Amino acid sequence: AYLADNDTSDSLIDSFRQMAGGKEWVTKEDIAAVMGDEEARPLLEALAPYDSEQGYDYNAFVRTVYGSGKK
């Protein structure tokens, strides 16, 4: 499981942002560097592409997981 019982949308966004080096999107390489290729695969399949970059939209993923209350 990727989420702990005490995770919040803000903490998950902060974690992705750190993984992404402060970018609003995360790359396959960013995720694999932290999780490894095998564990990254299911997460990459769940992430939507980011509109203007070669990466994935972690904010959309967090909204899907926690609801659309925050952007």
Q: How would you describe this structure to a colleague?
A:
This protein is mainly α and about 70 residues long. The protein is built from 4 helices and 2 strands, in the order αααββα. The chain has a two-stranded antiparallel sheet. Strand 1 and strand 2 (about 55) form a beta hairpin.
Itemize the secondary structure elements and their pairings.
Elements: H1 9-19, H2 28-35, H3 37-46, E1 48-49, E2 56-57, H4 58-66
Antiparallel strand pairs: 1-2
Give descriptors for this structure.
71 residues; mainly alpha; two-stranded antiparallel ribbon; 4 helices; 54% helix
Brief synopsis:
The protein is mostly helical and 71 residues long. It has helices at 9-19, 28-35, 37-46, 58-66, and strands at 48-49, 56-57. It is globular and about 25 Å long.
Given the C-alpha coordinates, what overall shape results?
Answer: globular
Mean pLDDT: 87
Largest sheet: 2 strands, antiparallel
Radius of gyration: 11 Å
Oligomer state equals single chain
What percent of the residues sit in helical stretches (DSSP H or I)?
40-55%
Helices and strands, in order, run as HHHEEH
Distance between the termini: 23 Å
Count of discrete alpha- or pi-helical segments spanning 4 or more residues: 4
Beta-strand percentage range: 5-15%
Low-pLDDT ranges: none
Count every beta strand, where a strand is a DSSP E run of 2 or more residues: 2
Strand order of the largest sheet: 1-2
Instruction: Please state the structural category.
Output: mainly alpha
